[in-house]
What does this fold into?
Amino acid sequence: MSGIAGPTGSQWYDAEAGPLVRPYAMTGGRTRPGPNHVRFDLIALVVVEDDATGSAEESLLGPEHRTLLALCRSEKQSVAELAADADLPVGVVRVLLGDLLEAGHVRVSRPVPPAQLPDERILREVIEGLRAL
It folds into this structure.
């Protein structure tokens, strides 16, 4: 296996690909988030809780958990954005977010279902009314 040993001689590092950690290793073999099996939509917004625990408890989290928290601190992020910015599979991000949600580190706001959105006809009438002013 050429190229597997990195600069430190570790078998877990590939000079071209970076660290070789399988997704199941990041989630402890879990494929569903938390004991309640919460489902995170790709467009669900995640934000760090204001009263979340301090850095002492965060230091007990894994590096992927801390990466997600750091990304959410700057601004609200969707699950899809977090997966892209953290360079992690969406399934892994969902499991890790389940951990963070259960521990009280993050809050998730779910998107509005299409049935609850205003009717397009009403929006067009509002636009036409504004143009008439």
Remarks:
- Residues 96 and 124 are 41 Å apart (CA to CA).
